């Protein structure tokens, strides 16, 4: 750059401007704030009273203001549509341009749009890889007259960096649009998948009135347990879907077994137990977005002490998703009526599950179930007309006060326990988990908490 001695101050200002531009190029902060910083730095370095920084969009071909300094009367945003020949001229112009002797911009700009091009005394096209990305338009020079060659060199130098920042912003916006578009598509795909599986779940449970809605509810409970355990949203969604399909093998079971009022004999039990293997065979041949789904279908009847089926797995041999499913499945089975017994009330069912933990059920999953039930009970206790219900015996007709906002338990479940009852169950669970010890051995899980 051919700067004379008298221009030493401007050289310093130019380097200062470059230093100011550096953080804006990372795109880590708000682009509009960056655009103003970039414009002010350029105006000071080039000796301009005012100016405007435009970004360029191709479809439609349009300049749109990103920052304006010293031109307060301009509308926000200021827009200048461009004809193809103007885009071509700006793309191929050799550096910053001065207006023609008649004060117009000939092929570069027209008077279309809501800003008069006569306001500009210098135009610096912003280009990256021979593509127009924006335009820097300077107003009057601070010292009057026209911009000199040194000012134009400074503008050209800074325009190169500003163009990169504008291009960064444009790419980031495109990426954001692409990502949100993909997320929207994914969400609609997930919704479609979810609704399809839900319909499938209803079809599985159509075999008998006593299991109507079981698979959908198990999916709902499993997702709630996963959510309370702090699992990722994608894992929670996978649990819901796995719940919908966990009993898919029952489609191959003789439906008379589901309505038999007596306990099943050994052969009948073996046939019912087969649903885990049949289901596994069915889902193993389907490419689901959740690779753990076949494991859940096969192992949701496994128990921590090895008393489950079909593979008699123990403890951590059973994947977490299947252990969660076991708790959700058992919970729904207990609070639902069966041909050989009435439904357990909520307190009784939770007490049984706690009693069988951690020997049969995963304590963390049971704790998460208690968390969800407690949230429901707290929410319910805040509903008008529900005071005094806790501790009462379950009514024969399950008609209660208005439904709470928390939907963990459906309308068919009568909530006969208070939050303090759930706290007591959590204490029991802690006691069982620690085998009655009040101290904690190294390597044992931390005490459970419902907070
Ligand atoms: Fe099952």
Concise structural overview:
Helix content is 47%, strand content 7%. With 451 residues, the chain is an alpha+beta fold.
Compressed to H and E, one letter per element, the order equals: HHEEEHEEHHHHHHHHHH
Ions, cofactors and other bound molecules: fe (ii) ion
Number of strands: 5
- What's the CATH class label of the largest domain? Mainly Alpha
CATH fold assignment of the largest domain? Hypothetical protein af1432
As laid out across the biggest beta sheet, the strand order is 3-2-1-5-4
Low-confidence stretches: 1-5, 387-399, 438-442
Radius of gyration, in angstroms, nearest whole number: 35 Å
What gross morphology would you assign?
Answer: elongated
Protein described:
There is one protein chain. The chain has 451 residues and is of the alpha+beta class. The chain has two domains: 5-177, GAF domain (Beta-Lactamase), CATH 3.30.450.40; 190-433, Hypothetical protein af1432 (Orthogonal Bundle), CATH 1.10.3210. The chain has 13 helices and five strands. The protein has a five-stranded antiparallel sheet. Helix 5 packs across helix 10 (320-334). It binds fe (ii) ion. Fe (ii) ion binds next to loops.
Topology readout:
Layout: H1 8-26, H2 31-46, E1 51-57, E2 62-69, E3 79-81, H3 84-92, E4 122-128, E5 131-138, H4 149-204, H5 214-228, H6 233-245, H7 266-273, H8 275-284, H9 293-299, H10 320-334, H11 346-355, H12 363-381, H13 419-433
Antiparallel strand pairs: 1-2, 1-5, 2-3, 4-5
């Amino acid at each position: 750059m051919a700067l004379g001695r008298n221009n030493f101050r401007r050289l310093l200002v130019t380097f200062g401007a470059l230093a100011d531009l550096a953080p804006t190029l990372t795109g880590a902060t708000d682009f509009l704030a960056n655009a103003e910083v970039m414009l002010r730095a350029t105006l000071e370095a080039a000796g301009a009273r005012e100016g405007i920084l435009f970004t360029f969009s191709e479809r439609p071909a349009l300049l749109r203001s990103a920052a304006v300094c010293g031109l307060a009367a301009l509308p926000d945003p200021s827009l200048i549509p461009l004809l193809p020949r103007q885009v071509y001229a700006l793309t191929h112009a050799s550096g910053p341009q001065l207006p023609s002797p008649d004060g117009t911009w000939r092929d570069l700009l027209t008077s279309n749009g809501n800003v008069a091009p006569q306001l500009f005394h210098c135009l610096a096209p912003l280009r990256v890889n021979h593509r127009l990305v924006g335009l820097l338009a300077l107003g009057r020079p601070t010292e009057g007259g026209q911009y000199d060659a040194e000012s134009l060199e400074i503008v050209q130098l800074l325009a190169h960096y500003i163009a990169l920042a504008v291009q960064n912003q444009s790419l980031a916006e495109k990426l954001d649009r692409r990502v949100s578009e993909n997320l929207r598509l994914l969400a609609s795909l997930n919704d479609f998948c979810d609704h399809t599986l839900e319909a499938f779940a209803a079809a599985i449970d159509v075999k008998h009135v006593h299991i109507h809605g079981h698979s959908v509810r198990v999916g709902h409970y499993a997702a709630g347990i996963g959510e309370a355990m702090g699992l990722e949203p994608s894992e929670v969604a996978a649990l819901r879907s796995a719940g919908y399909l966990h009993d898919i093998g029952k489609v191959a079971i003789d439906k008379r077994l589901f309505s038999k009022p007596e306990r099943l004999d050994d052969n009948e039990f073996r046939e019912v137990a087969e649903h885990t293997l049949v289901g596994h065979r069915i889902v193993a041949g389907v490419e689901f977005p959740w690779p753990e789904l076949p494991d859940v279908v096969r192992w949701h009847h496994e128990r921590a002490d090895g008393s489950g089926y079909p593979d008699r797995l123990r403890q951590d041999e059973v994947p977490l998703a299947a252990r969660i499913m076991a708790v959700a499945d058992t919970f729904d089975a207990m609070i639902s009526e069966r041909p050989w017994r009435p439904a357990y009330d909520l307190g009784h069912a939770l007490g049984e599950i706690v009693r069988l933990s951690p020997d049969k059920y995963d304590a963390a999953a049971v704790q998460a179930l208690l968390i969800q039930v407690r949230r429901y009970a707290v929410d319910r206790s805040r509903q008008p007309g529900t005071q005094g219900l806790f501790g009462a015996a379950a009514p024969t007709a399950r008609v209660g006060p208005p439904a709470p906002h928390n939907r963990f338990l459906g309308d068919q479940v009568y909530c006969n326990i208070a939050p303090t009852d759930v706290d007591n169950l959590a204490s029991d669970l802690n006691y069982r988990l620690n085998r009655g010890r009040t101290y904690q051995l190294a390597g044992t899980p931390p005490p459970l908490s419902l907070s």
